[in-house]
Amino acid sequence: MKNRRIRNMVQIGMLAAVATVLMLFEFPLWFAPSFYQLDFSEVAVLIGAFSMGPAAGVVIEALKILLNFLINGTITAGVGELANFIIGCGLIVPAALIYKRHKTKKNAVLGMAVGTVAMTVVGSLINYFVLLPVYSAALPLPMDALIGMGTKINPAIDGLWTFVLFAVAPFNLLKGVLVSLLTLLLYKHISPLLKGRTNH
């Protein structure tokens, strides 16, 4: 039991470090302003959550955000980082909870699908009520200017609500789908290593 606890602690630290590195490699998407950057750090977090449970996933997510905060700093006094933590948990927690009940491929897919929808909803609400107003104040950049960056990409974006609908929601939806696909491809190969089995 003690050895398992130590192994889990080591793996949580290792996966948090991998997630932090992955978070450094980010790129914009064509349908959202350039300050929305896609990264695949949640793949490492989700693998840890599937292997060790949702609580471990939350810890890995928190450590990832903290390490990134220490490396890159913040322009939002930590508000952006807290919001990103909540959005990440929106994917990780439902997926891991569903998978934990019955550890089958079907449940993994179901969990990630539910998690993707949850992350999209949570991300949209947090961006609307918290992140975009905070970024507007912190940059500082008027909200109209932020919305205008979206309008240049998609003329249908003409206000905060349409910004969230046509930029933020698709961004989180696509991120959830891509993270889920990569996790599905990688987990069966990495899981034996995390569980201390190397014979298959």
Question: Any key phrases for this structure?
Answer:
single chain; 200 residues; mainly alpha; two-stranded antiparallel ribbon; 7 helices; 2 strands; 2% strand; globular
Topology readout:
Layout: H1 2-24, E1 27-28, E2 37-38, H2 41-52, H3 54-72, H4 79-101, H5 105-138, H6 143-153, H7 160-194
Antiparallel strand pairs: 1-2
What does this structure look like?
By secondary structure, the protein is an all-alpha fold. It contains 7 helices and 2 strands; from the N terminus they run αββαααααα. It has a two-stranded antiparallel ribbon. A hairpin with an 8-residue loop joins β1 and β2.
Short description:
The chain is 78% helix and 2% strand. It has seven helices and two strands. A hairpin with an 8-residue loop joins strand 1 and strand 2 (37-38).
Count the beta strands. Answer: 2
Proportion in β-strands: under 5%
Overall geometric form: globular
Based on secondary structure, the structural category is mainly alpha
**Element order: H for helix, E for strand:** HEEHHHHHH
Distance between the termini: 24 Å
Contiguous low-pLDDT stretches (5 residues minimum) are none
Order of strands in the sheet with most strands: 1-2
Mean pLDDT across every amino acid position: 93
Query: What oligomeric state is this?
Result: single chain
Rg calc: 18 Å
The number of helical segments is 7
Percent range of helical residues: over 70%
